[in-house]
Amino acid sequence: MRSTASLLRFLSFVGLLSIIFAIAVALFLHVETGLDAGRLVVAAVVVVLVLFTLPFTGLFLFGQARLRQVETLTDRTRALVGREAHEMSLETGLFPELADLARILEEWRHQTLQLNERFDQNRALTVEILDSIGEGLLAVGRDRKIVLANRRLAELVDIHTSLIGKPFLEVVRSAQLATAVDRALEGETSSYRESVDAEGRQRTIEVRVFPVKEFSDAAAVALFIDVSLIERLEGIRRDFISDFSHEVRTPMAGLRSAVETFEMGGLSPEDEAQLRSIVTRQLDRLQRLVRDLSELNAIESGDLVLRPERLDLRGLLVHVAQEFGASSAPGVVVEGEPVELVADRLRVEQVFSNLIDNALKYGDGSSAVQVEVQRHGDEAVVRVTDRGPGIPARDLERIFNRFYRVDRSRSQVSGSGLGLAITKHLVQLHRGSISATSRLNEGSTFEVRLPLDRVA
């Protein structure tokens, strides 16, 4: 369009000059020679067109052709800068002077396409990596607006729209974060922990904020690390050490006392036999503790493998009850209907042996333990009931914890304090559930639900 307009302007200008020049020549010849003016004008116009207008017009057209090619190359260069190189195509027919420039632009186009493709791939990879990490990532510019945020951060703050460009305090409303970002913008690194309500539950988040000096867009970066599990494990470790020390203290004190008494000498045969009995009992207690700890560790670490088979649950419970019948005065009564399920026989026996053993130990000593088995939908339901003093409501949720005892004063009752913890894990390995209900001075009931045809 620019070349066409220039051509029209040029032709108009040359045409006007030609007419003026032709009239001037005709008038000059008319004055000098006295020839007819009209014929002289026509002759002069023809001469001027042949000798002046046509050559200049051809020269102009030649220049305009080159100008159009230069404009084309200019547009293509602009397209390269604007990342539109994939829409260009260079045709042949360029003037030799412009062919080298066109080839250079073509090479530049290919290199630009490769660089753009590589940049897009690297950017996509970076975004995928940032979205896949378990920590929330937030990058803030000096204007305190978000320039980068990954998917994990969006999950923690429960926002499912784009966070880019928003003031960070609209996304994470925290005075501590504001202070940490201000310090990062001044070149300082800081960290803190706070409890937040994320994903429907309370979580402990450790936030680390540090400055970024190499990039113009991001001036400060904050990492949001969920340390809830770490804190919980630290608490479990502390409780375990405390509870284990408590459980070991009693048998160790008994063994030390027995050894010191032996060292003193002068014991009668009856006293010596009694001391040997104490040592044996305390060693058995330590042995049970070590065994149960080893088994619980195997269950929790996933090393325990179930060996499922089809079995008659009521028949299995009758067999377990018969084993306790000879050693317990009140006895065990099994009621209910025959129920078949697929489960690990040995581990199911262990579950109900633990529950029946506890019911006998903590019962009233005169009433039989009631065991009821039923089928409910696609589950087998077993209830083990005793008539003991019961369990306070505040302790019902904690009785399945390691070493937990409802009443520490009853620690003389034999056992490692791990039976119910092992029982719960074994039930869960079978994809089942266990719960307890109780009324003070009336007794307690433990209910186990096991799927009929599904194991881990």
Give a structural overview.
This protein is 54% helix and 18% strand. It has 456 residues and is an alpha+beta fold. It has 4 domains: 105 residues, no CATH class; 94 residues, Beta-Lactamase, CATH 3.30.450; 69 residues, Orthogonal Bundle (Helix Hairpins); 144 residues, Heat Shock Protein 90 (2-Layer Sandwich), CATH 3.30.565.10. It has a 5-stranded antiparallel β-sheet. A 5-stranded mixed β-sheet has the order 7-9-10-12-11, covered by helices on one side. A hairpin with an 8-residue loop joins strand 4 and strand 5. About 3% of the residues have low confidence.
Defining key terms:
single chain; about 450 residues; alpha+beta; Beta-Lactamase; Helix Hairpins; 4 domains; five-stranded antiparallel beta sheet; five-stranded mixed beta sheet; 12 strands
**Percentage of residues in strands:** 15-25%
* Order of strands across the main sheet: 2-1-5-4-3
Number of helices: 11
Protein structure class:
alpha+beta
- Give the end-to-end Cα distance, rounded to a whole number of Å: 77 Å
Write the layout of secondary structure elements.
Elements: H1 2-33, H2 37-81, H3 96-132, E1 136-140, E2 146-149, H4 151-157, H5 168-171, H6 175-185, E3 190-198, E4 201-211, E5 220-226, H7 228-264, H8 269-300, E6 308-312, H9 313-325, E7 332-336, E8 340-344, H10 345-362, E9 369-376, E10 379-386, H11 419-429, E11 433-439, E12 443-451
Parallel strand pairs: 7-9
Antiparallel strand pairs: 1-2, 1-5, 3-4, 4-5, 6-8, 9-10, 10-12, 11-12
Helix pairs in contact: 1-2, 2-3, 7-8, 8-11, 9-10, 10-11
